């Protein structure tokens, strides 16, 4: 098992002050640095690697206040993807999502990937995010977290590792084209001592460009909402560039759904039943994820539908919330995106785009929808009224029938 640790500080001045390089370890004082800790495991498999399914397991904390600049776009909660090849040498596309849960399930990951047990024993799901990618015989486990101020982090090789490499960088420059990192990179020998530390400068293209919400891309939930929420996405301020397209990516709870026959999404995974109320869905149904292609220059509308929720005694309203991401996907025509040492294109909506695609996030908004619950106190009234209407209708029809004959 190999490990690579990447540390990035936004503050260039304090990088050298925070590091203490010793004979067999590097001690770093916490100053809000972002960390990616990557383990690479080679599995012993007897089947040809081309016949093995690609799997991705991700975990993202719901309360992750600051985006790790090294971290890919992950969905909140625990998610498991399985992919299949569309062509012999084609991309891995998401086939279906096995699990989506709000709680971290360590046992489920153990069952699917017992090789990562040693790593998960030290993983704290409340402090870090996780991205596990399996393709062929290789497992890559990425952990993302931010170091607390004035805490101490000690980097050294342990008995489970055959190789350790660590890089400590500061952001020299950053724009929409590329990021420049400057710092020091250390490598360890098998006996646990540091072989060498050397000055290193890295240049890479960001795959995901995250900005503050673009005022030119407003999202509104049309009023009144009712049982069929409509979300308006205004792209009238955006031009239609030949190398770019606009999309919205949505993860929906089980109370809401998309009618794929009405809306024509790019893809729809998860719950697709159009009739069942929320409380009649199987317990393992979590909701759905979907992506829509948007047209620039106009106001786009996404039609959703809410399920009936369980009736209660009295008046009540259920609140269903979901995250909606609007982004622009552009073909960069450059291999620099693939050469980003911190980024691995994986299963999820990224799998529907080419390797050189750059994603610019225009608006990420959490939307809440109120769904009224039926009042059980009115049940007998409506039942009696319905029966009375049926009886009166039958009497009227029979009266008309016999009168005419």
Automatic annotation (TrEMBL):
Pathway: Glycolipid biosynthesis; glycosylphosphatidylinositol-anchor biosynthesis. InterPro entries: Pbn1, PIG-X/PBN1. Keywords: Endoplasmic reticulum, Glycoprotein, GPI-anchor biosynthesis, Membrane, Transmembrane, Transmembrane helix. It comes from the Eukaryota. It is found in: Endoplasmic reticulum membrane. One of its GO terms (cellular component) is glycosylphosphatidylinositol-mannosyltransferase I complex. Pfam families: PIG-X. GO terms for molecular function: mannosyltransferase activity. The chain crosses the membrane at residues 379-399. Required for proper folding and/or the stability of a subset of proteins in the endoplasmic reticulum. Component of glycosylphosphatidylinositol-mannosyltransferase 1 which transfers the first of the 4 mannoses in the GPI-anchor precursors during GPI-anchor biosynthesis. Probably acts by stabilizing the mannosyltransferase GPI14. Belongs to the PIGX family. This is Protein PBN1. It comes from Lachancea mirantina.
């Amino acid at each position: 098992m190999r490990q690579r640790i990447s540390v990035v500080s936004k503050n260039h001045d304090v990088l050298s002050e925070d590091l203490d390089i010793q004979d067999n370890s590097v001690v770093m004082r916490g100053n809000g640095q972002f960390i990616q800790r990557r383990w690479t495991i080679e599995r012993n498999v007897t089947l040809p690697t081309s016949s093995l399914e690609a799997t991705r397991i991700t975990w993202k904390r719901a309360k992750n206040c600051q985006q790790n600049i090294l971290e890919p776009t992950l969905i909140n909660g625990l998610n498991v993807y399985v992919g299949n090849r569309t062509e012999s040498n084609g991309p891995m596309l998401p086939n279906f999502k096995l699990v989506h849960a709000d709680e971290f399930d360590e046992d489920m990951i153990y069952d699917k990937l017992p090789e990562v047990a040693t790593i998960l024993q030290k993983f704290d799901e409340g402090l870090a995010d996780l991205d596990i990618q399996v393709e062929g015989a290789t497992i890559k486990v990425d952990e993302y977290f931010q170091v607390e101020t004035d805490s101490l982090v000690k980097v050294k090789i342990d008995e489970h590792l055959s190789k350790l490499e660590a890089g400590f960088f500061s952001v020299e420059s950053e724009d929409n084209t590329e990021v420049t990192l400057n710092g020091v990179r250390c490598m360890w020998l098998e006996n646990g001592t540091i072989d060498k530390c050397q000055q290193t400068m890295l240049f890479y293209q960001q795959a995901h460009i995250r900005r503050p919400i673009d005022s030119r891309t407003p999202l509104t939930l049309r009023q009144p909402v009712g049982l069929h929420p409509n979300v308006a996405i205004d792209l009238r301020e955006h031009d239609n560039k030949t190398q770019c397209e606009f999309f919205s990516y949505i993860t929906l709870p089980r109370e809401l759904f998309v009618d794929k026959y009405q809306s024509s999404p790019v893809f729809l995974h998860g719950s697709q039943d159009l009739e069942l109320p929320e409380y009649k869905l199987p317990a393992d149904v979590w909701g759905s994820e979907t992506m829509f292609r948007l047209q620039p220059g106009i106001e786009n509308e996404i039609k959703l539908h809410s399920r009936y929720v369980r009736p209660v005694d009295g008046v009540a309203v259920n609140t269903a919330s979901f995250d909606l991401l609007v982004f622009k996907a552009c073909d960069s025509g450059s291999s620099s995106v693939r050469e980003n040492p911190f980024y691995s294109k994986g299963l999820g909506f990224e799998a529907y785009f080419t390797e050189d695609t750059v994603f610019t996030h225009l608006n990420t908004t959490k939307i809440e929808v109120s769904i009224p619950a039926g009042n059980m106190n009115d049940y007998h009234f409506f039942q009696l009224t319905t029966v009375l209407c049926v009886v009166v209708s039958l009497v009227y029809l029979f009266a008309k029938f016999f009168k005419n004959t």
